[in-house]
Amino acid sequence: MKAICEFCHNEFEAKTSRKRFCSKSCQYKNYYRTHPEFRRKQIENSSRRIASDPEARAVVREAGRRWRKANPEKARAATKRWEAENKEHVAEKHRGWFDAHPEKRKEYHDKWKKEHPERIRAFWKDNSTKRRAMKANADGNYSYSEFLSVCDDAGWLCVYCGCRLDVKTATADHMIPLSRNGANGIDNITLACRSCNSKKRDKTVEEFMDSLHKVRCFQ
């Protein structure tokens, strides 16, 4: 006897006229759908048991690994949905991992830049346009001779990493970034190498030095 499953709506061979579902799985899923409170209590009980029982957690992890291996596309889709719903948690986790593995961070960034040259060009073009606009609106200005005086006062050493610089490698860094209402006058300018200037971005001197200290601690 042919029948239509009330849950998945697939046709199946029914042994009796009272048969409503093609499988036990569809029968249980239909019950969960029509009794959400029962399903919620069941999930809560399972969560408490898993949290208090290490063996249960191990069983759940192994079951999850088997499911992900058997359903890679569904697993990727589920991961993307979870990450979209928990963006702040994911970002914080990534920052922590990269801070603890600076060499991996550099390897990842170098690979990404090599694979996306057009994104890099677009970024620097957009960044240069924004920076020119910020400089135009910022208070103050300075001359090249004033910047050379800053370099002489710093001994031609990067104030952040201490590397030796010259007129070709020296860059002017805004101690209080323009993006944070820093002035464009010489009093807000210090000497930095290109690498440190690029890494500092919109951080203050204190914030950048603190980030450098954290990276050295993990190395």
How are the SSEs ordered, and which strands pair?
Layout: E1 2-4, E2 11-13, H1 24-34, H2 36-52, H3 54-70, H4 72-85, H5 87-100, H6 102-115, H7 117-137, H8 144-153, E3 171-174, E4 189-192, H9 194-200, H10 205-218
Antiparallel strand pairs: 1-2, 3-4
Give a quick set of tags describing it.
about 220 residues, mainly alpha, DNA Binding (I), subunit A, two-stranded antiparallel ribbon, 10 helices, elongated
> Which fold name fills CATH's third level, the topology of one domain?
DNA Binding (I), subunit A
Distance between the termini: 70 Å
Mean pLDDT across the residues is 86
Radius of gyration (Å)? 30 Å
Largest sheet: 2 strands, antiparallel
Protein architecture, described:
A hairpin with a 6-residue loop joins β1 and β2 (11-13). This protein is 63% helix and 6% strand. Among the domains are: 2-75, no CATH class; 141-218, DNA Binding (I), subunit A (Orthogonal Bundle), CATH 1.10.30.50. The strands form two sheets. A two-stranded antiparallel sheet has the order 1-2. A two-stranded antiparallel ribbon has the order 3-4. α3 (54-70) packs across α4. The protein has ten helices and four strands. The chain is mainly alpha-helical and 219 residues long.
